[in-house]
Amino acid sequence: MITQLHWSFNFCTHDWVKSSGRCYFCTKARDMAEKSSLLSLFLIDGKYRFWRYLFFGIVGAIIISSMVFVAYIDCSVQLGTRIYLLCLSSCIVYAIAMLLNYHYLVPAFLLKGKYITYSVLLFGTAYLLPTLSILQEYFVRNAWGLPHRISNYKCLLIWVDNLSSSMLLLVCFLGVSAIMLFRQWKKQEEQLNRMEYAHLQAEVNKLKGLTTPSFLSETLQRASNFVSTDATKANEMLMQLGKVLRYQLYDCNRDEVLLSSEIRYLHSLLRIKQLLKDGFEYEIETIGQPHNLFIPPLLFTALIQDAAGNSTSLKISFTCDVHSLSFRCGYDRDTGISDHAIASLRRRLDLQFPERYALVSEAGITELKIALP
User: Fold this and answer.
1) Of 315, 255, 258, 235, nearest to 282 (Cα)?
2) Residues 248 and 279 reside in one and the same domain
3) Which value, to the nearest 10 degrees, does the dihedral of the CA atoms of residues 74, 76, 79, 84 take?
4) Which of 249, 289, 280 is nearest to 265 (CA)?
5) Residue 208 CA to chain centroid, in angstroms?
6) From CA 26, how far away is CA 193, in angstroms rounded?
7) How many domains does the structure of the chain reveal?
8) Domain end residue (candidates: 162, 180, 205)
9) Which terminus of the chain is more exposed, N or C, with fewer CB under 10 A?
10) How many CB atoms within 10 Å of residue 157?
């Protein structure tokens, strides 16, 4: 069997450009949307992670270094180049705290709805950083013999004053958390859009497989004509049409149907085709146990209807086992299945069996193999 894997998803596109020209307001709206999408991509897309870290790292290093220079402005001459070591150590401590919030506190508590725990831990982290800066200043000035800027490190007002600094840090931490929340919201929105698209696409494909008004009208008209000439043929035609409509109205409301039910439906559909078209022959072969296998309803209808359109004979075979389902449709015409029918079937397979099917269509034969979960 010739197989060809299809891995890509097909999504519909919409053309917003009018035939008379471009709308000014639509153009402006599209430009604003592109700028907004660039900003959101920079904030949440994984391929911009390095540049995102670099940007926020540079901004944070400038702010923290400015705080260090202000804290040691009275003895900057005595410190000399050693002040850059203090800047580096402070940047490392603040970076660790920021990464702790980004990679642990937000995923472990905020995104899981543990808001009180997250708030307490975040406030504690924000308050701890200026406290560590004061302790660092105390030990640095003692170790290097520098005059102390703070006369009494045990004064309660110093620790109260840390609250103002911690509030500013808390705003910075919440900004990072907001980016994480925005990223999570975008992922959920994209997932909901994919689910909605898959649902709508499945409904459209299901409707495409239903009996068309022209087919129903032709069947009823021919049955009416056969009543006076061949009552047996008219009776069988109406019985088969009743089976087709019953299957489409009741069985197809479920997400999955037995393969044996689908085969019986195809048999009724092709039997009607045989009664309507003189000289048309078909054969359906089943290998395996179709009574134990579930598939989406009307999966093969559009393909078989297209194959039967200009053919005088069809040979269909289903081979099923526990882990796979193979479908083969042979027809006596030089052209293959239409591109529209193949594209419709492939879109549905992409939605319901992503990366688990192989489909090939050539002149006279179409083959499909599905790997079952």
Assistant:
1) 315
2) yes
3) 130
4) 249
5) 24
6) 23
7) 2
8) 205
9) C
10) 8
Q: Is residue 4 domain-resident?
A: no
- According to DSSP, the residues that pair with 316 across neighbouring strands are 284, 329
Confidence of residue 183 (pLDDT cuts 50, 70, 90): confident
| 215 and 142, same domain (yes or no) | no
Sign of CA dihedral 177, 178, 183, 185: positive
Copy the structure tokens of residue 122: 């975040």
The range of the structural domain enclosing residue 73 comes to 29-205
Q: How confident is the model at residue 9 (pLDDT cuts 50, 70, 90)?
A: very low
Residue ending a domain, choose from 168, 184, 205 = 205
Tens of pLDDT, residues 52-61:
888 888 988 9
Two tokens, residue 82: 């050693």
Answer yes or no: are the C-beta atoms of 317 and 287 closer than 8 Å. yes
Packing angle of the helix pair 156-208, 339-352 (nearest 10 deg): 140
Bridge-based pairing of strands 313-320 and 281-287 is parallel
Residue 68: Cβ-neighbour burial (10 angstroms; 0-12, 13-18, 19+): buried
